[in-house]
């Protein structure tokens, strides 16, 4: 079976993989067998067949990111995972002067909105400004002072295609005693990621983009050494050490990352996403990345250098190419006429080639843009 046959193909040239990745071809069968059949025929009730969906989700993520399944907690999306994390922070007054949460002006706004809620726990938000170079480790060093309690590191910036040297930033944060929180929404599935090498404190992500896993299956990963210090306020019976104890006078946090879970979870998104993650893992994220770089370079090398917004250096560019032609409207109209699916943001057009895109498609895009 060809790579293209593994995914449902849309009409035209689909380059919106930074937003929603294409659906694996077997997704409807997975939904049928793991969700609907269990609901219709599962005995004594559907949960007997739904429960394994969550452990499969945790295991598929553990395989993809080289970690322990127990450190992953299903979340609806990145924002909800980080809200729960904030609710587990101690009040800033107890942190011996560490009352700053460091973020950047180019983190995804939803995530910035969440982090700013830390003010309810006594924290102050500091921004690394747009004009500061987040690819330069020295900038992070300057900001990671002894007043910082936690830093949000967005691995891939949605608006510029910048790929932050996360491993180095985490390492500085660790030396400075700062909690590192990494957002991998834009990179999971297109950039090889190894948590054992990174050693972050917390990671949040979703499966809807390059992992082709559909919306609703986000996750929070919490390192064992910080897990037991974190007691989220936002809980439910699935956050309990023993959800079936049913003693209203005794809440005990789960020993693993599931303490960040909550009430009765949805099932279908995780069944679908596990299958997608497994498919992406068997193709190999390194293979996806090499293909993505090849197609990205094809575009970069063919277009005027002055159009390029995202970094030219492959090691500092996410899967997304951001370009801004001087005659934007004209080029946008030509791409739309060719049925190219892309989007336009303040800084330019976002074009994201996945494993199922071909060099021939990119040739057509180049011809329409020039
Ligand atoms: C860097 C980054 N983080 C997070 C998100 C999405 O956050 P959420 O899953 O909370 O909607 C996006 C979406 O485009 C993103 O680009």
Structure description:
The protein has two domains: 4-24 and 285-369, Aspartate Aminotransferase, domain 1; 28-281, Aspartate Aminotransferase, domain 2 (3-Layer(aba) Sandwich). The strands form three sheets. Strands 2-8-7-6-5-3-4 form a seven-stranded mixed beta sheet, sandwiched between helices. A three-stranded antiparallel beta sheet has the order 9-12-11, covered by helices on one side. 46% of the residues are buried. Helix content is 36%, strand content 14%. The protein is an alpha/beta fold. The model has no long low-confidence stretch (mean pLDDT 97). The protein is globular and about 70 Å long. The longest helix is centred in the N-terminal third of the chain and has 19 residues, at 47-65. Pyridoxal-5'-phosphate binds at residues 77-79, 108, 110-111, 154, 158, 183, 185-186, 206, 218. The site of pyridoxal-5'-phosphate has 13 residues, from helix 3 and helix 4.
Short description:
With 370 residues, this protein is of the alpha/beta class. It has helices at residues 27-41, 47-65, 78-87, 109-116, 137-143, 166-176, 195-198, 224-227, 268-283, 285-302, 328-337, 359-369, and strands spanning 13-14, 72-75, 100-104, 124-128, 148-154, 179-183, 202-206, 218-222, 320-323, 340-341, 343-345, 348-352. The protein folds into 2 domains: 4-24 and 285-369, Aspartate Aminotransferase, domain 1, CATH 3.90.1150.10; 28-281, Type I PLP-dependent aspartate aminotransferase-like (Major domain) (Aspartate Aminotransferase, domain 2, 3-Layer(aba) Sandwich), CATH 3.40.640.
């Amino acid at each position: 079976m060809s790579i293209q046959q593994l995914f449902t193909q849309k009409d035209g040239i689909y380059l919106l993989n930074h937003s929603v990745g294409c659906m694996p071809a077997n997704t409807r069968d997975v939904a049928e067998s793991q969700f609907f059949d269990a609901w219709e025929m599962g005995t004594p009730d559907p949960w007997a067949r739904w429960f394994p969906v969550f452990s499969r989700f945790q295991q598929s993520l553990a395989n993809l990111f080289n970690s322990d399944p127990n450190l992953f907690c299903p979340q609806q999306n990145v924002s909800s995972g980080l809200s729960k994390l904030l609710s587990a922070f101690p009040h800033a007054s107890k942190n011996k002067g560490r009352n700053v949460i460091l973020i950047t002006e180019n983190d995804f706004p939803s995530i910035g909105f969440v982090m700013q809620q830390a003010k309810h726990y006594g924290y102050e938000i500091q921004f690394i400004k747009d004009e500061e170079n987040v690819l330069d480790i020295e900038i992070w060093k300057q900001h990671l002072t002894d007043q910082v309690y936690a830093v949000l590191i967005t691995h891939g910036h949605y608006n510029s295609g910048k790929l932050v040297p996360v491993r180095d930033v985490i390492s500085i944060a660790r030396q400075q005693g700062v909690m590192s929180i990494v957002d991998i929404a834009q990179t999971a599935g297109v950039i090889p990621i190894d948590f054992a090498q990174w050693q972050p404190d917390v990671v949040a992500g979703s499966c809807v983009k390059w992992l082709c896993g559909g919306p609703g299956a986000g996750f929070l990963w919490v390192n064992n050494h910080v897990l037991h210090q974190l007691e989220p306020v936002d809980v439910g019976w699935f956050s309990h050490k023993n959800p079936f104890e049913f003693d209203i006078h005794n809440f005990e946090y789960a020993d693993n990352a599931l303490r960040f879970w909550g009430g009765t979870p949805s099932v279908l998104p995780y069944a679908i996403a596990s299958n997608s993650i497994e498919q992406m893992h068997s193709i190999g994220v390194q293979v996806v990345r090499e293909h993505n770089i090849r197609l990205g370079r094809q575009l970069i090398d063919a277009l005027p250098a002055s159009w390029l917004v995202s970094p030219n250096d492959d090691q500092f560019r996410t899967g997304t190419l951001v370009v801004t032609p001087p005659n934007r409207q004209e080029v946008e109209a030509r791409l739309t006429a060719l049925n190219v699916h892309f989007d336009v943001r303040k800084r330019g057009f976002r074009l994201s080639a996945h494993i199922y895109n071909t060099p021939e498609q990119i040739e057509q895009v180049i011809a329409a843009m020039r």
